[in-house]
Write a structure and sequence with these properties.
The structure is a single chain. The protein is α+β, with helices and mostly antiparallel strands. The protein has one domain (19-183): Endonuclease I-creI, CATH 3.10.28.10. Helix content is 47%, strand content 16%. Strands 1-2-4-3 form a four-stranded antiparallel β-sheet. It is globular.
């Protein structure tokens, strides 16, 4: 199954074929990402180039294969020194990472603020790959990297801004799901 088209966030670029199954898989993927995934902005030592990366490292290859099927990206396996098993890493970069975050953001809890920060940054409007960044764009990406690191620090210290009531409020969750299925998924 491969999702393409529109979805939760204007940047998602995903479209569900079978609403119920795809919605469940997307919610599962977001929950798994919430616990195991990372959102990073990588830069070279001089701050001349920036890359947005969304990734998960795990020994659970089957789940990472689901991410590859749902979103694309790369899937690699490595043997780490001292470990008796392989570690698998799924990763996706730049505009494709924006698309993935846009699809998962309605289901995220722990990483919701990080994802929203990146989605609201305008990352997808800046050149990537071979394009050259202006000084202003470099400063904007460097600032986003700093802001993302600060959000991660706050989260590690337990300063989450997700209201605790939302974790157990089934009415809020049902409302979010109704909004998603009613307006975000297109008919095949």
């Amino acid at each position: 199954m491969n999702l393409t088209g529109e979805n939760a966030h204007p940047n998602s670029g995903l479209r569900a074929r079978s609403e119920n199954r795809d919605l469940c898989e997307l919610a599962y993927a977001a929950g798994y990402f919430d616990g195991e995934g990372t959102i990073n902005i990588l830069s070279n030592g001089e701050g001349k180039g920036f890359q947005l990366r969304v990734e998960i490292s795990s020994c659970d290859l089957d789940t990472l294969r689901l991410f590859k099927v749902l979103f694309g990206g790369s899937l690699r396996s490595v043997k780490w020194k001292g470990l008796p098993y392989l570690i698998h890493r799924w990763a996706i970069n730049n505009q494709d990472a924006i698309r993935v975050l846009g699809a998962m953001v309605p289901f995220l809890k722990a990483k919701a603020k990080e994802a929203q920060l990146v989605l609201d940054s305008g990352w997808d409007t800046l050149p990537s790959g071979g394009g050259r960044l202006s000084e202003s764009q470099k400063r904007k990406r460097a600032g986003l990297k700093r802001d993302l690191m600060e959000v991660k620090k706050q989260h590690r210290r337990g300063n989450s801004e997700v209201p605790e009531s939302e974790f157990h409020d089934t009415e809020t969750q049902h409302s979010r799901l109704a909004n998603l299925t009613g307006s975000l998924f297109l008919e095949p």
